[in-house]
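Summary of Year 1 activities. Much of the first year was spent building the evaluation harness for sequence design. The harness presents a backbone, in tokenized form, and records the residue chosen at every position. We chose the following record to illustrate the format because it has been used consistently in internal testing since the harness was completed.
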């Protein structure tokens, strides 16, 4: 397969932002920067979208064979695995179940959501399941995680 040399010749200013992203995906970092790519339908499709910003030329075979092959990392990025916590009974360490939810030190958003749902004590919270808490309007996974962290145990 033939190789092509792509040079960025004109700024993306004044053109749709999508064209700037195409330039970035071709590996071009700045004006007058050049890269060498294989002449594939994918690359040519991207080049055709922004041809008015580029200069494209075919690389002679002798020059292409002299250049060292660019190593591309094709391995997928590893994401850390989430740990699944086992259900357990709530453990309230720093506050008693009669105390108000103000003693937990929750964020303002979480406090407002719980106050709107008329939940004012830790005892009320400890009797609710995760599904019941998530059914409260605007109470999402982040609020649930924060609440579990503040209570010191998962339900």
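For this record, the design step produced the sequence shown next.
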């Amino acid at each position: 397969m033939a190789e092509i040399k792509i040079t960025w010749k004109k700024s993306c200013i004044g053109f749709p932002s999508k064209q700037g992203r195409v330039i970035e995906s071709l590996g071009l970092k700045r004006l007058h920067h050049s890269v060498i790519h294989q002449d594939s339908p994918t690359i040519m499709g991207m080049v055709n979208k922004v041809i008015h910003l580029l200069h494209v030329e075919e690389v002679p075979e002798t020059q292409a064979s002299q250049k060292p092959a660019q190593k591309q990392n094709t391995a997928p990025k590893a994401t850390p695995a989430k740990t699944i916590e086992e259900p357990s009974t709530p453990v309230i360490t720093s506050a008693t179940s009669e105390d108000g939810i103000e003693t937990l030190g929750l964020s303002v958003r979480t406090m407002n959501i719980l106050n709107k749902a008329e939940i004012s004590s830790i005892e009320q919270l400890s009797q609710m399941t995760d599904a019941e808490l998530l059914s409260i309007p605007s109470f999402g996974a982040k609020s649930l995680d924060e609440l579990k962290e503040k209570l010191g145990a998962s339900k």
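The CA atoms of residues 96 and 122 lie 8 Å apart. Quantitative recovery figures across the full test set are reported in Table 2.
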